[in-house]
Amino acid sequence: MCSGGYAGTRIFKIIVIGDSNVGKTCLTIRFCGGTFPRQTEATIGVDFREKTVEIEGERIKVQVWDTAGQERFRKSMVEHYYRNVHGVVFVYDVTKMSSFVNLKTWIEECNEHAVSLTVPRVLVASGAQECVAGTGRSSTSIW
């Protein structure tokens, strides 16, 4: 597969899921763009970002799917989120206990869509309020 000018670039699809307003968008923008955004808007459906990385001399394109946390924006697209996924990132906000409790629902959804147990799953604890408040900072640190 040729992509971004690199023959044979492998593509890895990572989905980022969790409740609404837990910092998923800030996390994906930071990973793909290098900085936290000053403000974000609610994700409707899915927002898609890419970053090409080099690991041991091999170019790898990472596709990050930033999913909507609100059920009304998810219904029609959920099947596509999980199809051919290589990794799942679960995000919750340390300042919202409900987002931690709801992780069970997100894990169940993941399992219901037949994501293999061999697919890596990562849990990220975010301090989303800082990013949403527009300071350009976040206490989330992963990647």
UniProtKB/TrEMBL annotation:
Single GO MF annotation:
GTPase activity
Instruction: State the PROSITE patterns in the record.
Output: RAB (PS51419), RAS (PS51421)
Keywords, alphabetical: GTP-binding, Nucleotide-binding
Signal peptide (from-to): none
Identify the domain of life: Eukaryota
Task: State if Phosphoprotein is listed as a keyword.
Answer: no
What is a single Pfam family found in this protein's UniProt entry?
A: Ras
Q: Which family does it belong to?
A: Belongs to the small GTPase superfamily. Rab family.
What name does UniProt use for this protein?
Uncharacterized protein
